[in-house]
Write a structure and sequence with these properties.
Elements: H1 7-20, E1 44-49, E2 64-69, E3 74-81, E4 100-103, E5 113-118, E6 142-147, E7 152-164, H2 170-174, E8 180-192, E9 195-213
Parallel strand pairs: 3-4, 5-8
Antiparallel strand pairs: 1-9, 2-3, 2-6, 4-5, 6-7, 7-9, 8-9
Amino acid sequence: MTQRRSGRALAAAVLAVVLAGCGGQGSDAGGPGPGDGNDASARSAITTPAPAGKQVRPLARSVPVGLRIPALGVDTPVMRLGLAADGAVEVPPVTDDDVAGWYRHSPTPGQVGPSVVLGHVTVGTHGDGVFRRLGQLRRGDRVEARRADGTAAQFTVTEVRTVAKADFPTDDVYGDVDRPELRLITCGGPRSGDEYRDNVIVFAELSATTSGER
């Protein structure tokens, strides 16, 4: 069973990777494991939006297998990321695949708490990163996380920040919250070699859930 970490513990673990940069280097993190496939294509979707003035009911744990951001034309698989040997959070590998990575010690999308997804802005000679246009998102844009159990968690963007890595808002990003939220993180700002000065951070909250029925 995956251990659930507090927001403060999560912050300490993840901070190293966001400060390290999202340029042309990556880890050898693996993709979704056995049994994590998404068979939602064989299901009819039933979407449950939040009633006016109410929060959407949180979902049970189920790992994300895909991420869709309509405003950016992003529809990508999601791999699981753990911790590297030095204790920093892994980043997606530098390959030709345009993929995002979910940090497996954070809540799954739709669970209570901040679910953390990281992606490259560029990946050197391997092409453009999946989050290369993340900073273009605006309040009200939608993000959908497809989950291994065939459900989907739909989020609405509430804020987009570009901040200097030296001033990374650790508590805002990784602190405990009492509802399901999503954080999308990449690099931004001026580039020097493989490193970027800033981070782009998207904050979003759960706005609907989609369940699948045979």
